[in-house]
Amino acid sequence: MKYFKKNKVVMLALMLVFVVSLAACQSNETGGKDWAQGVTEDTVTVGTIGVMAGPLSFIGLPYYQGMEAYFNAVNDDGGVNGRTIQLLKEDDQFDPAQAIAAAEKLIYDQKVFAIVGQLGTPGVMAVADIVEEEGIPSVYFGSGAAELTQLGDNFFPVQPNYVYEGKLMTKYAIEEFNAETIAILYSNDEAGNDGFKGVTAGLQELGESSRLVLQTAYNPGDTDFTGEMLRLREVDPDLVILFGLSGGVANILANAEEYNINVPMLTTYSNADASFLQLASDRAPEAVKNLHVMGWLDVDEASLQPLVDAMTKYFPEGNPYNAYTMAGWVAAETFVAGLTAAGNDLSWEGYINAMNNLKFTAGLAPEISYSPGEREGVTHMAVSRVVVDPQGNYIFEQVTGFDEF
Amino acid sequence: MKILKIEDLSISFGGLKAVDRVSFEVEENSIYGLIGPNGAGKTTIFNCISRFYTPDEGKVLFTSKTGEEINLLDYRVEEVIGKGLARTFQNVELFKMMTVLDNITVGLHREMKGNILFEGFKLPMIKREEEKAKNKAREVMKFLGIDGIENQPAAAQPYGIQKLIELARALVSEPKVIILDEPAAGMNGSETKELAKLITKIRDHYKTTILLVEHDMGLVMDICERICAINFGKKIAEGTPKEIQDNIAVQEAYLGKGDEEDA
Amino acid sequence: MEDSKGTIRKNNRLISNLLKGKPQQYLVVGIIFLLIPIINLWTGMISFSNMTLLNNVVIFAIAALGFNILLGYAGQVSLGHAAFMGMGAYLSAYLTMQLELPFLLSLLLSGLVPMVIGLLLGLVALRLASLYLAIATLGLGVTFQNIFIEWTALTGGHAGLRRIPYPEILGFEIRQREHFLILSIVILVGLAIFSYNFLHSKTGRALIAMRDSEHAAQAMGISLFKYKLYAFALSAFYVGIAGSLYAHLYRYVEPSAWGVELSLNLLAMVVIGGLASIGGSIVGAAFIQLLPRVMQDLPLVGGITNINFILTGVALIVVIIFFPTGLIRRFDFLWNKLKAKVGKLNSKEGGTP
Fold it and tell me: For a disulfide at A328, which of A28, A67, B71, C198, Cβ 3.0-4.6 Å?
């Protein structure tokens, strides 16, 4: 029948199409230059991915201001080895699927030379596979995920990861706080779990596991910590480690205030930020005075001057003293340090080699260095404490030098 | 042979007895009428028979397609048509989004073979079943005089045609008993006369038994061989049309007790 | 009589016969769309990220198709269907990574397992009337999202599953977006034809009957419960398959994707595209996936945060008010008008049958 024949023809066509398309494999070849993609005679194009607008913009906005301020300053100064730096920004709205789409756009369509300062652990992890596969350099992550140190030589984490931080906390706990007994409250998410892992690992390596007398996980959204407060009273530790991000820690402090818990507390560097301090001091004006925080940036008048100048020039409405602004600035300066050292050898191998030989001390962090196979990032951290200045403002004051585990 | 025997059917709704120990029997291949004033409980009885309601007491004995006598109360509502009892609804309940032909074909749902996998892959068996079903539907449409509109949307048809479509849907499975719930509702005199002829024709052609609830006395008296009268949930009379007409209880039920005669 | 008019008539008849019947139409349209990735393999005109976007559209079209069977044809509301898509995604990742099962088998299982779970859930949930069903499914969706977060051994918790393998068929690894698009279009067309076939048979009629008049359906022998269960399970199958494709496209699965947002997006796709319409599901999926991207690039509105949520909401309202039967029916209407006009022109030349 005619109908049947037509159906057959259609099926045949479909199969032909399938076979032909299977046969048409094409590989993408970049041009024959020695430079990697994203490099021309006078420009280097880089990309960044992170949350820029919306509820989490209190992180993204200052962060990217800091990053752009640095690049602008460098460009105005003649660029790096004669090349200006073009920054392409993609907003992923803290959504991993969008982060993947952004990475594809930057790496495959816009062909950037490197990814700089990707912000947000979910997006960072989502994109990690692509970055690993392509071998494109990714410098600085706004994330404390420990895996980033293990993914390959093209990954350059800078921020300390939470596992390492947990370890270092234990060293300070013993040497600085002289804590015979330690308690830890950690959030039931990646950051908290990693921190807890680090604390237990650190104590174990130091042979002091017995000092840990209380360990409790909490949900980031919890507001009632009555149970934990009562336990703390019972156990009466010398130091309480609060490993979680701002909202949860502020809630814990509010509860500590209510229950008059008066014991030194130590929290992660992620909370070493003015907006968190504002939140915490509003809710727990007395308890917050017991709070200490880890920090990895060495900031004083002198070291901050370039940042202050740049921000005044390019983002006068922004705040140079914001921890996130500083983080973005560090991301940019780390990338540029490697770019400068690479000279004209702007293939990806060339950049990676340059970074492997890097010992960068001129920035806000005391030292950033890598060696082949070693990608630990910043390993020196210091402890700061919350104090009230003569004007009645709550600020952080550094009380130790920079130490490593 | 009494194909349908209602025995002591009772059902209450919230303390109010809607149907109170009603019993009647329907002879095979006859046309049987159920009458009574509004709210008497006729439709409730229908709903019990067709299993939309479950009565508190009683039996509904039905000689099914297979010849076996069963109590319909042992079965669920969707099993009833499979046993050989089909019904129509007072407010025509067609499937508005379907064509006329599809509406009628649904009447054969229980008989059609096939499952979703076979259907999805359009196996020849499915095609055959569809053709078979559709042809049966077409036959019924022809019989009722509504052929030619098979691919039209059912919802777009005039009310009278919709009633016929619903009738076709009930008929297509060749049931042993059809229950018609107020088939003449919304019809004028001449339409009702046509309906009477049609019902008789159906009974003769399909050799089926017809049980109907109706308000139109003309229709009931015209075609029903026996009638059961209900009032306030109780049976008040049963018999031939003549017997019913002459029955005082029935007269009272419809006209009220006409004792007080004010000049 | 081989005159020019006769040839035109013959050709017209050929085309209209070819296009007669929706399954053929789907096939033909599918082949036409297959040209897009094929041509792109040679010319590379469409960017990588846009290719990913097209893949996204097809994947969600498959999910929307499944959801439409439940909502559009069977008239049952589920506000938790994201759970099934997540199930399919995690399961496919697990099967290909841990058990190293071949991709096509994983794909099939990623449809079957959610289907069985959908069946079990349906046994409980479907006894509820529609409002309570909606609430119950909403709760189920949240529950499953939390299971995805907590069951870290299977799902990797918050961190998710990375390095999900590329799909591999008969030794050929599908790495390129174009090849993936070909695969997903073939699956979509296959499912569309399968759906069309059963929707125009006894099962389809039963579903529509159930939606249009529960009483009449029951009187005609249709078990409401059985068919509600069918629809629930079937829709879970399609959505699970879409989940598997998603996992192998992005090669990364994490819990935050499978929340209420996604469930509501499925609802929006189907309502905007057109309830009880296969073509409508595809149109709706394209609309919801493409609109935010298009808007982002527009000069003024592009900068507004969360523009996609706002737009989806606005679109939903506009469609419900002005095109309550969905965009596809609007297209159909305009297309029929066009055909009528063309038909008039043809009839001047000798007519098309």
Answer: A67
Q: Is C43 on the interface with A (CB under 8 A)?
A: no
Does the domain at A43-159+300-368 match CATH 3.40.50.2300? Answer given as yes
**Cα–Cα distance between A404 and A165 in angstroms, integer?**
9
Q: Are the Cβ atoms of C215 and B89 closer than 8 angstroms?
A: yes
Which residues lie closer than 8 Å to A213 by C-beta, 6 or more apart?
A181, A182, A183, A235, A237
* Measured distance CA(B249)–CA(B261) in Å, rounded: 19
C221 contacts in B (CB within 8 Å)? 78-82, 109-110
Q: What is the pLDDT of residues C184-235, one digit of tens each?
A: 999 999 999 999 999 999 999 999 999 899 999 999 999 998 999 999 999 9
Rounded-to-integer distance, Cα C148 and Cα C94, Å: 13
Chain C residue with Cα closest to B168: C220
List the pLDDT tens digit at each of the 405 positions of chain A. 444 455 555 555 556 555 554 444 433 334 435 788 999 888 999 999 999 877 778 888 999 999 999 999 999 999 998 899 999 999 888 888 889 989 999 999 999 999 999 998 888 989 999 999 999 999 999 988 888 888 989 999 998 888 999 999 999 999 888 989 999 999 887 788 889 999 999 999 988 888 899 999 998 778 889 998 999 998 889 999 999 887 889 899 999 988 888 899 999 988 888 778 888 888 888 888 999 999 888 877 888 899 999 999 999 998 888 888 999 999 999 999 999 998 888 999 999 999 998 888 888 888 888 888 888 888 889 999 988 888 888 888 888 888 888
With touching defined as 3 or more inter-chain CB pairs under 8 Å, the answer for chains B and A is no
C25 touches chain A (CB under 8 A): no
Strand, coil or helix: B162: helix
In a domain, B261, yes or no: no
What are φ and ψ of residue A4, in 5° steps? Answer: -65, -40
Q: Which of C159, C250, C252 lies closest to A190 in CB terms? A: C159
Expressed as residue numbers, the domain containing B184 is 2-84+175-255
Q: Considering B138, B161, B184, which residue would you say is the last residue of a domain?
A: B161
Choose, out of B51, B94, B101, B122, the residue to mutate when testing the contact with C (most C CBs < 10 Å): B122
Interacting residues of B174 by C-beta distance below 8 A, sequence separation 6+: B206, B208
- Select from A237, A267, A247, A263 the least CA-distant residue to A165: A267
Q: What is the interface size between A and C, counted as CB pairs within 8 Å? A: 96
Least CB–CB distance from C24: residue in A10, A54, A109: A10
Answer with the one of B115, B131, B161 that is the final residue of a domain.
B161
Flag whether residue C38 sits within 8 Å of chain A, measured between CB atoms: yes
Nearest to B119 among C202, C212, C219 (CB): C202
State ipTM. Answer: 0.90
B166 domain residue, yes or no: no
Q: Which of 1.10.150, 1.10.3470, 3.40.50, 3.90.550 would CATH assign to domain C22-322?
A: 1.10.3470
Would you list the DSSP string of B106-126? HTTTTT----HHHHHTT-HHH
C-beta separation of A359 from A369 below 8 A: yes
Domain residue spans in chain C?
22-322
Superfamily for domain range A162-295+383-398? Response regulator (3.40.50.2300)
Where do the CATH 3.40.50.2300 domains begin and end in chain A?
43-159+300-368, 162-295+383-398
**Tally of structural domains, chain B:** 2
- Name the residue facing C48 among A14, A25, A104 (closest C-beta): A104
Ramachandran area for residue B187 (φ above 0: left; ψ -120 to 50: alpha; else beta) = beta
**pTM as predicted:** 0.82
Kindly list the partner chains of chain B, i.e. chains with 3 or more CB atom pairs below 8 Å.
Answer: C
Q: How far apart are CA B221 and CA C77, in angstroms?
A: 48
